[in-house]
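Justification of resources, computational component.

The compute hours requested in this renewal are based largely on the per-chain cost of generating structure records like the one below. Each record pairs the submitted sequence with a full structure-token output. That output is archived, and it is also reused by downstream analysis tasks.
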Amino acid sequence: MCGIAGLILKPGHVPDAALLQRLTAALAHRGPDGAGHHVAANVALAHTRLAIIDLATGDQPLFAGPAALVGNGEIYNYRELRDENALACATGSDCEPPLHLFRRDGMAFAEGLRGMYALAIHDRAARQVVLARDPFGIKPLYTAEAMGGIAFASEPQALIAAGLVAPRLRAEARNELLQMQFTTGAETIFEGIHRVLPGETIAIAEGRVLERRLRPALPEGGPEAIGEAEALARFDAAFQDSVALHQRSDVPYGMFLSGGTDSAAVLAMMARLNTAPVTAFTAGFDVKGAADERERAAGLARAAGARHRTVMVGEADVWRHLPEIVAGMDDPAADYAIIPTWFLARRARQEVKVVLSGEGGDEILGGYGRYRAAMRPWWLGGKAPRTRGAFDRLDVLRRPPTGWRDGIAAAEAAAALPGRSRLMAAQALDIADWLPNDLLLKLDRCLMAHGVEGRTPFLDPGVAEACFRLPDGLKVRKGAGKWLLREWLARHFPAAEPHRPKQGFTVPVGAWIAGAAERLGPLVAAQPGVEEIARPEKVVALFRAAAGKREGFAAWHLLFHALWHRRHVEGIVPRGEDTFEYLAAR
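The structure output for this chain reads:
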């Protein structure tokens, strides 16, 4: 887990040393353990390191012949790649095998990689730079046209901080954010800044893109004909292999544990594979009636023989740190789970440098209620996901948001491949956009703020191969999702009570906002980013009504947008102020 950036300029242009330093400084939080540069002719690469594997010789850039590499993330099967391909590696770095594979296979070098990665390779002989991102989009990578060429970085804010791009908003993406809490596709919310798509490999030379390839995250084809016993055995083998690979580390590791089935499965498998007790971290809230999972998680930890650490997320702590938390979400996702994730990462860093989590379990194994709705035809109450926006029928915004569902509609069409069931298409839709642009983005930014690496063993090619094409009946049965995972837990970790009704994860932002509405509502309404899109008196009324579910959700979106806009558009960096002081400062 690191930060990378670089410039690929047109011939005759020379990368500016001061500019490269600004890019590096903007990514220092992603790599507090060191930094390195590579500059050759019109190309520059920069790297900030969070040392996880090969602490002694794994500094980057890495070199092999005429090629240089900088990378963010981890290649979990680096040992197998090195041994099976007889690669002569000079270091023990997990990122060195991909460099040698690139020299042998060119643009196809990433096909056998298992991991989370954003890689940049400069091939001096071919006079080109190749960028590659993992198929699930676990690790971020962004590009922008600038200075007579193309710049790239792990975070959009680095491109802005370096002066390469101005922070101008795209109205379409802002509407997506307000209505859905995340943005879709290759375009970001900033004009001129683009995402390298999950699974994309891009060749760039002389400041322009020459070639694009896409490695899909999911296997092709429709549901397989497979029975429950065989499916359980296949999942067990694939999940064990994935968790074993995800535990590879030269520094201490632990896990995030909720009361749900996904993290319970990760805990159960880690307990199977480790002789020492697993260290598990759980967050809880100080609001009566909130979904506090600490007690249930403590029971799971006891059953697995794990060391259990808890974090109380209190209202005062939230108001104190929320500007800092939102400031980390430069590619915005207004997911209220950023709050407990940020506090969990801060606590985890006291004991570990790597955490495993359950992100991806619902998407791979069919857990969400919206999947069950998508499986039904419309005349039986079926509906497409995300057809209702957060501000629909609330009469708060000056103009109804337009075009906010265009990106999701395009992704729906792309996900509905021939042979796929309705359930598979809904899963594929989430894996293409919701997962990388909300859940994984949240995990990346909140953990990177504290120098912690987050790993997601459900998001592995082997697990996807074992699970995505399962029959619908092994994913959804008796009105419950993730049927196969529940059956696996019933056999291997019955303490998880896997067939009990699913309890959705919520953060009590509505209660917090309602309690501070008289002070907070006017402050939010007066922010430039909010005032231009919403009527102040309606914003104040919305915050007063935030105890209601829909009103609280919409009020949270506006609060997030106000804080985010202040930091990433207006350029006002939090300096330790609490939420109220930060919004009031002029």
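DSSP finds 22 helices and 17 strands in the chain. Residues 2-214 form a domain with the Glutamine Phosphoribosylpyrophosphate, subunit 1, domain 1 fold (CATH 3.60.20.10).
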